[in-house]
Fold each of these.
Amino acid sequence: MSIGPPQNQTAARADRASLPLALLDGLSNCLERVGNAMGDLAGWGYLACAFFITFDVVCRRFLGFSSQGTVEISGYLLAFGITWGLAYALSARGHIRVDVVVMRFPLRLRAYAHALALFFLAVFGALLALRAWSVVQESWELGAMETSALTIPLVIPQAPWAVGLTVFAILAAVLMLRTLLLLLRGRYQEVDRLLAARSLEEETEEALEAAGVAAAPSTSGEQQRGTPA
């Protein structure tokens, strides 16, 4: 029985080995797009909250009436915005990190430190999501209602809040699996690019892009992260 040239066998094994990583890459990219859309909606929610509060203050001062639900609605919008922005912040590496020591590690050790931090974040996100849905289920079973003048079922604001935490937890888990596969293949540089905090050059480029100004060519941010070992 012919088994083909060794080069073909090696290529076939490489394709099979890269298939799980390719699937995780596709799933991660899909979740990142969902997170970006959720982040946009969260931003619009904050704008709506600001306009609503401003409108209510003006009406109280000059027109003598109030919506009677400013505190509740603004609280719901803030909770909605926080959880729906988590996935976007994760994919954009926007979460606050204290990495003064980590960024001085050799590349291999730094990659494992990134993976460990992501693992704890994924576990924490999963716990938050599970607890959130437990709260939603409890409110549904009890028929809990808002005690203010709004008198709306609590599951209405709680469900979107739980959805945001769930998408965040799933994205963190997918990134964790993707990171593990990269570590097993010794691709530490890719792990560092995927999980490291954004460099000064990246922050500057983002700010210039938001301002509509073309960024000048700069050296790679990898130099700022230390010399690979």
Amino acid sequence: MANASTTGFGFRPIKKIASNYNNAALSEYNVAASSALISHACLVRLTADGVVLASGNTDTNNLGTLNGVFYTDATSNKPTFSNFSPASNTATDIVAFINDDPMQMYEVMSADTAFNQNEVGHCADQVNDVGVTPLFISKSKISATTANTQAQLFIMGVSRDPDHSDTTEEGFALRVQIREHILVGNDTQRAGI
């Protein structure tokens, strides 16, 4: 059966690794005023300035995924919740809600057109693609280039979502863990197997 879509959907948190209790808690981090768009379900990184930005395709200071933001609108002066952090937002109190647990498992669509079982245990970087109006949900995918060397994401298996589990067709999703996670530290990071 063909997959429901070939458009990426960013990183969907699905469960904790090792069946730990998944309370879906979010941590708060600052976003700099007038920064670039951060899409919903986008992989984010922590900068040296202590703020979050969308992660690039090979960034290593990954923190988790954006679930939304809160800020005081600079024009209307009203408190505002949003699923994404708008580009060029001049508010000075932007708080991002980040799923930052290093043991979180995500589903992310693959940029590959077919899956080989030997990719489980390998690592790959993301292919970043920002969301578009009206919802600004990330369209990022996991790269088709996998290896047993260090990269952003560790492949744990194929999605169990029937809409994205046909590995013979484009549009399948993989279960991944953020391997280059800033809260884990470089000394404990491992390459794939």
Amino acid sequence: MSLGLRLPTLPTCAIPSIPSYRKLRPTYAIWLLGQTLLPEAPEYAHEFRLRDQHGRVFLDHGGIWLLELSKFAADAVETEQQRWLKFFNEAERLDEDALPAWMQTQEMRRAMNTLKAFSEQEHAYHAYQARQDYLRERQSIQLEFDDLRAEVEQARADVEQERVAKERERGAKEQERAAKEQERAAKDEALAEIERLKRLLADKPEPSDPGTR
């Protein structure tokens, strides 16, 4: 079984019309590294190309430029490459109103304007993120406050419910006590009536026998 890999193709409308591929200009990928990647190599610029195991170059129309900014320390600018590397190293510390002599080119001024635009966009982005963080924190605080208020209201409702239950219990006990009082009073009244009737019967003379007259 064979495995095939098909690379995606671009539509023909996306490829510019050229008379020959030999007129294509080389295309390089430029990697700017703020830290040292190849400590054993003293130079700061490295050019890599695609080669096979025999050292044969795959194509001559491009490659990868790897630039280690940490190794670049030229004071004087002699080439455009050095100008750009110095810009990448020192751009954040430059004053756009008092640029040094090596920055006095159209490309460098354009690069400075681009950097300023990026800085403004970054500032706006951080301001937006700070605003979002503030809104999220405020929402979190509001939610916590709502939860605490709900807990307080629930506790207050529980206390009120407990008070009402105790009031009902006390009222029921009062009614029970009053009922017992009424029952006892009724018993006392009945006993008193019985005692009164007994006294009446005891004080009443017995009727005489007609046969004895």
Amino acid sequence: MRRVRAAGVIALALTITAAADPAATGIRFDFKVPSLAGGTIGSEDLKGRIAVVDVWATWCGPCRMVIPHLVRLQDKYKSKGVTVVGLNTDDDGMTPEGKENVRRFAREYGIDYPIGLMTPQAYVELARVMGFNMEEGFSIPTTLILGRNGMVIQRYPGYFQGQEQEIEKVIAGVLKSEEASQKKP
């Protein structure tokens, strides 16, 4: 059922265009989920880094469009302290078969960044941060950009044409701002 609701919202979200997200100021996305590689991954692991957190599923067409860009984005900016984390929402993601399906997908798409598996608690936290109503479902991909302090810089509910460039523009802007503030006496 979640898949159907999410797919319907995705279609609507395709028309959304990005703008500055002043409503995100002061919001922290606190999560801790099982990692596909073992152990856990969470917001505490991202402190001190600029993080792009992408909530996705293997069956999601727009997710498949964004992921290759995120792989390139991490490669381009990782030396500047930027990391990407994928949070998978597949219904069977916690089962051995589901985990293997996510691993296959990650290999196929060249995902070399950490992948977490969404939990009910992480869904509640995502809904809080994004302003989603849990009863209505949410759109994927949902992407958040977190500052080095863990605060949300930008939120993207769903996919829109040009989102990949918009994410990179935000990252480049944050890095440029950091660089300029370091040059001030």
